[in-house]
Amino acid sequence: MPESMEFTDREDQIRQTAGGRIKVGMVSLGCSKNLVDSERMLFKLRKAGFELVTEPGLADVAVVNTCGFIKSAKEEAIETILELGELKKDGTLKKIIVTGCLVERYKEQIAEEFPEADAVIGIGSSKDIVDVLRSVLGGQRYINFAPKLDMELTGERLISTLPFFSYLKVAEGCSNCCTYCAIPKIRGKFRSVPIENVVKEARWLAENGVTELVVIAQDTSRYGEDIYKENKLPELLRQLCRIDGLKWIRTLYCYPERITDELLETIAAEEKLVKYLEIPIQHCNGGILKRMNRWGDAESLEALFAHIRSKIPGVILRTTLITGFPGETEEQFNELAEFIQRVRFDRLGCFAYSREEETAAYDFPGQIDEETAEHRAEIIMEQQLLVSQENNSRQLGTIHTAVVEGFDRYGEYWFGRTAMDAPDIDGKVFFSSERRLYIGEYVKIRITDTLDYDLIGEVIDDEA
Q1: Full strand arrangement of the beta sheet holding 51-53
Q2: What is the pLDDT of residue 462?
Q3: Are 113 and 149 in contact (CB under 8 A)?
Q4: In sequence order, what are the residues at sequence separation of 6 or more whose Cβ sits closer than 8 angstroms to the Cβ of residue 308?
Q5: What would the pLDDT profile of 274-303 be if each residue is shown by its tens digit?
Q6: Does residue 406 sit in helix, strand or coil?
């Protein structure tokens, strides 16, 4: 621990009880963008001399970085805080710090309803996590909501994913104002990280063993428009491709109306850019999309995806959909189901509409009951499973590069991903090998079988 760290009497008492350095555990909930924020806090805590542990039950202090996007995420965050409160009651935990989107969204309400939280801080205060932790160790209850625009957009991080891949957040906030979404109110307006800062962070990640970057933002395809007055995503991607050590670069969260030929040509031309695009469309019916404040209709979207496939042969297309949006008729839902049968997305996620306070859609007429919305989402995913099985069957006998993620000692097989699958949200490939592999190794796989959304194969040569 650095000699410069000064303890209050109460903090010193906790340190002595802990038997040495104070242990801090992080619970990061929600999306990958939230995970990047957690990694920045973890780096600051480790640099300040605190010991980091992976389980809250082993910690003296737990930090919860919450999600507050939709109902299920809020429920998970609340349940996590309550569970940590029980650990604090029995003396396992000494202090609890709560931050993130749920706090930013409900502020004083969280501070009032969760007295077990020793600190409640907004996203603009997360940069001060070390001072916050020291304050609560000193016996103070710390409540602070710095302006959300004060949030750090870049900086050093502690990589918490598998060591060979990392998320690279290139912007914060959102200015799209979709009528169902509270993100602009929670996170603020869209603001890009300058290209030189993004490249510097990516280079640092590569120097620390990262070979796969996943480029993310609330709307990645809007990158640069706020600070450069023009779209700079293609230029950013080209600069990232010039970084030594990187092998795969993947882009998530591109909005359909901002898919340009320059972007498509860049993805097609650059070897390090995997031929994969995640384009959340939410629906295909023009009337529903208009009420969502989203772009397009079935005809324009279908034309867009055909164009993408013509520009990037073999591209993997992923999308997300919402069922049960206010006013969605049975006919409009059937149109969506028929649309995905025609387009045949390679990857797809579907979610039931969540009615959220402080969004325009909250007061829309024609609210649909949760059971109906959930049932419609299930139907879409049942359809997509059949599409996925058919798509996977065409992979039999083909050869792909895969990155090794681990070994299942019970099933005695290796597992990982091909370039067709993004971390955390897509499928896996399970494979055998005659030699011992290592995590982060890239190998050639021959596909021999399929399993719903996943593939089965065998290693056919040395490292790819």
Answers
A1: 51-53, 23-28, 61-66, 95-100, 119-121, 142-144
A2: 57
A3: no
A4: 259, 264, 277, 315, 317
A5: 999 999 999 999 999 999 999 999 999 999
A6: strand
Q: How many CA atoms lie within 13 A of 206 on its CB side?
A: 18
DSSP string, 340-371: HHHH--SEEEEEE----TTSGGGG-SSPPPHH
Residue 215 pairs in a beta bridge with: 168, 251
Give the residue-averaged pLDDT of 72-101. Answer: 93
Q: Please tell me the pTM assigned to this model.
A: 0.91
What whole-number distance in Å separates Cα of residue 197 and Cα of residue 207? 15
Are 171 and 217 spatial neighbours (Cβ–Cβ below 8 Å)? yes
Domains and CATH numbers, the chain: 9-150 (3.40.50.12160), 165-393 (3.80.30.20), 399-463 (2.40.50.140)
H or E element at residue 215: strand 212-216
Which stretch of DSSP H or E encloses residue 373?
A: helix 370-393
Which residues partner with 321 through β-bridges?
Answer: 282, 350
Please name the amino acid found at residue 116.
E
Cβ pair 84, 116 in contact under 8 A? yes
**Angle (nearest 5°) at CA 390 between 455 and 315:** 75
**Signed CA dihedral, 373, 375, 377, 380: sign only:** negative
Is the C-alpha dihedral spanning 56, 61, 67, 72 positive or negative? positive
- For the chain, give the mean pLDDT: 93
* 39 contacts 154 by C-beta, under 8 angstroms: no
Give CA–CA dist 71/369, Å, rounded.
14
* Alpha-carbon gap, residue 4 to 234, rounded angstroms: 45
Which pLDDT score, from 0 to 100, does residue 56 have? 86
Tell which residue, 420, 407, 424, 422, has the closest CA to residue 455. 420
6 alpha-carbon distance from chain centroid: 36
Are 127 and 151 within 8 A, CB to CB? yes
How many Cα neighbours within 13 Å face the side chain of 207?
A: 7
User: Most distant CA pair in the chain: distance in Å?
Assistant: 69
Under 8 Å between Cβ of 260 and 272: no
For residues 282 and 246, the answer to whether their CB atoms sit within 8 Å is no
